[in-house]
Amino acid sequence: MNLPGPFWLIGCGNMAGAMLERWLAAGMDPRQVTVVRPSGRPVAEGVRVLTALPQDEVPQLLMLGVKPQKLGEVAPSLAPILQPETLLISILAGVEQASLRARFPAPRTIIRAMPNTPVKLGKGVVDLHSDSTDQDARDVVTGLMASLGHVEWFDDEESFALAGHLTGAGPAFLFRFIDALAAAGEELGLGADQAARLASAMVEGAGALASASDEPPARLAQRVASPGGTTEAGLKVLDEGDALKALVARTLEASRRRGREMAEAARAPASS
Fold first, then answer.
1. Structural domain of residue 131, as residue ranges?
2. pLDDT tens digits for range 193-236
3. pTM exceeds 0.85, yes or no
4. Is 205 contained in some domain?
5. Strand partners, 178
6. Is residue 1, in this structure, part of any structural domain at all?
7. Which domain CATH number covers 134?
8. Contact (CB, 8 A) for 129 and 142
9. End of a domain among 164, 187, 208?
10. DSSP readout, 83-140?
11. In angstroms, how far apart are the furthest CA atoms of the chain?
12. What distance in Å separates the CA atoms of residue 109 and residue 87, rounded to the nearest whole number?
């Protein structure tokens, strides 16, 4: 995997760490990567880890992987180092393009990315948006993210944000469903470990089938449910009063509402 030059990761928590792990497995040269994190903890063999910004180079590619609330702390020291040719990627949830440009005026291209945790296995989803039309920069980022899973660009930032709530937060919601399904199996008499194994394996297979099928999930559900059978009886509980759809809609709306609050906070001056 060829990169256009030094690659800095500012912060390397759960998400950025999962992305880096996959990139290295896919052939990224660790000698091109510098991770800046206050703890100084190692991340992978061959990757330089520093507690302060390097003074001996300018990154060609930089990814912001800190918590969104930390942006105001890192931007003042980082912004003067960046050059117009630095390609800046942000995975900071809720921090809009305008907020990023206000803090990092030099880079010509700033790209927002919203990955999800399955990127660690190369089975993730990465949503992308930029106000830049530089196709070469877009191609570099598309190629970089392709090893993480499905990559999709969004023309407008609102659609990008909505997609992020679906794909970025979605795994957590699905994990809760898996846990609830396993707990229900245990309550009905299965062993806890067995119920957890079966629920996880079932979701893996069903998800693969849904991805590979030309039919919508609703039709696949109908194929499983024989008229008057056990599956249909369970579906009636989920479908009654659109209970499941209403619950998921409220869940995504809560995520979107919080995203808007975070975006509003990020628009405030860095000193506030």
1. 7-164
2. 999 999 999 999 999 999 999 999 999 999 999 999 999 999 99
3. yes
4. yes
5. none
6. no
7. 3.40.50.720
8. no
9. 164
10. -TT-EEEE--TT--HHHHHHH--S-SEEEEEEE-GGGGGT-EEEEEEES---HHHHHH
11. 71
12. 6
